[in-house]
Amino acid sequence: MDFYEISSSLLSISFFIYLIAVVFFGAILGKKRDERQKSKLTTIGIILTIIGFIAQVGSFIFRWMEAGHIPVSNMFEFIYFFSMCLIFAFLLIHFIYRYSIMGIVALPIAIVLIGYGSVFPTEVTPLVDSLQSNWLYIHVTTVALAQAILSISFVAGLLYLIVKVNQEVRSKETSYLELIMYFVVSVITFVILSFSFGAADYEAVFNLPENEDYTDISYTLPALIGPTDSELATTGHFYTGIEAPSFMNGPEAARKFNTLIWSLLSGLVLYGLLRLLTRKRLGAYLQNKFGKVNPDIVDDIIYRAVAIGFPLFTLGGLIFAAIWAQQAWGRFWGWDPKEVWALITWLFYAAFLHLRLTRGWHGKKSAWLAVIGFGIIMFNLIVINLVISGLHSYA
Amino acid sequence: MSVNTIKCECGHINHEGTVLCEACGKPIQGNQHLDGNDDQKVLEMRYDGSARRSKTYKRTFIDKTWAFFSSVKVGVWLIVITLIFSALGTIYPQEPFKNSPLPASQFYETEYGITGKIFYQLGFHNMYDSWWYIILVALIGISLVICSLDRYIPLRRALKNQKIKRHPTFVKRQRVVSSADKLSDENYQMIKERLEKKRYKIKEEDGHLFAEKNRFSRWGPYVNHIGLIIILVAAILRMFHVMHVDDYVWVREGETRVIPGTGHEYYVKNEKFSFDFFDPNEDERFREALEKNEAPIPKDFQTDAVIYKVVGDPVIGEEPELEEIKRGEIRVNEPLSFNGYSLYQAGNQMESEYDSISFKVNGENDQEIGEFKFETDEAPYQVELDDGTVVRVDDYYPQLEFTDNGPSSFSKFPRNPGIIFSVLKEGEEEGERFFYLAEEVIGLSEENTFSMSVSDIDKRSASGLTVKKDNTLPFFLVGAIIFMIGVVQGLYWYHRRIWIHPAENEYLVGSHTNKNWFGMKKELDEIFEGTEFNEFKDQSELK
Ligand code: HEM
Prior knowledge:
The structure holds two protein chains of two kinds.
Chain A: H1 3-26, H2 33-38, H3 40-67, H4 75-97, H5 102-118, H6 134-164, H7 172-199, E1 204-207, E2 216-219, E3 231-232, H8 251-278, H9 282-290, H10 295-329, H11 337-355, H12 364-386
Antiparallel strand pairs in A: 1-2, 1-3
Helix pairs in contact in A: 1-3, 1-5, 3-4, 4-5, 4-6, 5-6, 5-7, 6-10, 6-12, 7-8, 10-11, 11-12
Chain B: E1 5-7, E2 13-15, H1 53-56, H2 61-69, H3 72-88, H4 104-121, H5 131-161, H6 168-172, E3 176-180, H7 185-197, E4 201-205, E5 208-213, H8 220-237, E6 244-252, E7 256-258, E8 266-277, H9 287-292, E9 298-310, E10 322-331, E11 336-338, E12 341-362, E13 368-375, E14 382-384, E15 390-397, E16 400-403, E17 406-409, E18 418-424, E19 432-437, E20 440-443, E21 451-470, H10 473-492, E22 496-502, E23 507-513, H11 517-528, E24 537-538
Antiparallel strand pairs in B: 1-2, 3-23, 3-24, 4-5, 5-22, 6-21, 7-8, 8-9, 9-10, 11-12, 12-13, 12-21, 14-15, 15-18, 16-17, 18-19, 19-20, 22-23
Protoporphyrin IX containing FE sits between chains B (72, 75, 78-79, 140, 143-144, 147, 151, 221, 224-225, 228, 487, 490-491) and A (347, 350, 353-354, 356-357).
């Protein structure tokens, strides 16, 4: 076995350990508050999480040894490092608050992220010249850690909303909460689909006779939407014959659009099934399961995660980033989309901190803000990297 | 502005607009609405009920402006508006990133259609240095200064003037409180010891106890706001050219060029430009990734540079006398610096120009009669071969193109040379003509005794260097450091106070922390555990 294989195996191992840990955390649902804290199940859940974490760190180290540079330089590596930081941040908060119910929200999010990251190419890639700097290590790792800690405020916020949103009547709040559930479900179905078709080596190739730069484009999911002005070159593959509208720029756009439609549709199917099974809004179903939590503690975690994460983000996402940019390009700030989104994240959490100074912004409102903040982080991580490319674009 | 005062029953003289007496904390009647204490059991303690200008004076225009900018609500709105515009600016690339020869007026519409046109017409393509974006940021700056002054001064005064003995109402209306019917001396001592252990500073007077720690953390926000202001000032300074030089220069291998932006004072020579790509066959680990990638992944670019300074005053138009001052390698991430300027490896044109082309000349019966090297920088000229045959360069087009008027050169850079030679027998005036283009030689005469062929080609690369001088960097750095200190000071420490108040027939405890009530309650439980005090009550718990 070489380092690369050891690393991959350890990652799979940690993935399954996290899954088992969720089961243990889940088993405390519905119990009374006091029982939960003392329950053996919680302890086992935490121990499993720690073991999974160690395995994941091991996987990270082996990959590092294989590549010869810190593995945070492409989409797969970054998401996977981010999920590791998320687990770390969860453990950190756990040891401050000993509030184990957080695990039932934090771990599934980390698991979904690992799954999502694994959809991207997993080979080790060499570092382009501009990334060959020690500041890369420092900048990327602090940013990922900071974003993970900030995400804990989302975890707490989601928990708060699940428990506190009034599920007796339908309202804007219940709808938004369902929207979050639907997003999570869509990511899950996307990962499942990608892996199923990947395992079957599905590949449909489109020819682009009129395009000068690209000759063909290959789809790994059946084509609901084909590229503009294209012909399906392989036989026996499903194709609706619908082409992407021409305003979508570049043939890759059509493929990404196809993937998006697949995720949203399949998400809809799974979401619908779950609704049928539970006969409730998913939010209402979860609220029932979760029972009571201490809103003061959860609210405190929402704030504290931001209070810890914000300075760290400033340091990694703005200051270290600026130092590195100064060294690499001679300008510490250049309004590159990625930089602008780091600024947006920073401004958002600054606004969050200021709103906390005002009466009436604790509790549910803070929880919604934490959700928006996570939305910004994910947008920055996924949409900016994949769609709006700039200097930092990975994929 | 007249300063009225309010005298509290404890004797302390407070400024107009004070909500809680600075000394004893007794709520001052008639001012409770200022902090919203009327309808709340728990007193608003964020600024200790001190008299803030923005809450006190609301008459003149200046008062109103002051009140406007010191409102956190306004501050948050400014931040949110800036945030939204910043985001809108990333929908399409900003003008400097558009990467197209089309002018902006056409680019956005051609590329993105109607939405692109709107983007352009709203001026979003130059969002971040548009005047209104700068004004937004400036408003944030103004708001920062005013709100900080509005709060810092009265808060500092209030914290300085606080007395150990507080009014019972003040203690009772804190957020987390407790009481006891009696308190043994022993337990009192134990509480004191525990407080000391937790690093509280303790003061006592007539049986009243006041414990306080980490007051400095209250200044965190003001420190961080100062850091931000320094950064904003640095950003303004950077707009002036004295403080900031940003230029670009292409230097070919072997060439020496003046460095723009230095007032003709410095020259750079590119001795050698080398580059390296990752090779899939060399590195097994990366093979899969490299083979998937169509474009090669660059590994390293490097310019071996020499920096010269002009001796004496530079005179434009005259060949300057140069003196070497520095020599070194410039790489991505490793700029070369001299006298405040830095050169960054930014661009490359690899083997884009011909440095020299060597030719072989054959005479009758294809017998070789000589070889010569054509240097693109020295043309046109003629050479004499060993047997007396002369090769004359008649025409030279560094970057050949064919127009209606025949061959001509697109630029003076030898990117695609075209050369017309005459080969003359010894002593003759007319010879045979040959045309070199695209690395081949074609005979132009009808019958040739001579023939020419290319025997060697030497290409050269050009290196693109960014020239930078930024005197504002230290300001940004200092601002950033102060900001970080302030943020950490304000967010990682908490200002905590505990009052033990002997009332008529009971002991009261009130406590205050500026944040992290969870930690405060835990600490209180630890301090008062095993004493006569009842369990602590949080009077504003979330339901
Ligand atoms: C991007 C700009 C800004 C940043 C990054 C920033 C940052 C901060 C931070 C980190 C805190 C500490 C928060 C806490 O302790 O929870 C704070 C507090 C504060 N900020 Fe700002 N701030 C900014 C702009 C403003 C503006 C425009 C105002 C004007 C209204 C303002 C008013 C305040 C006030 C009143 C406090 C609380 C002070 C206290 O607790 O005594 N800030 N700021």
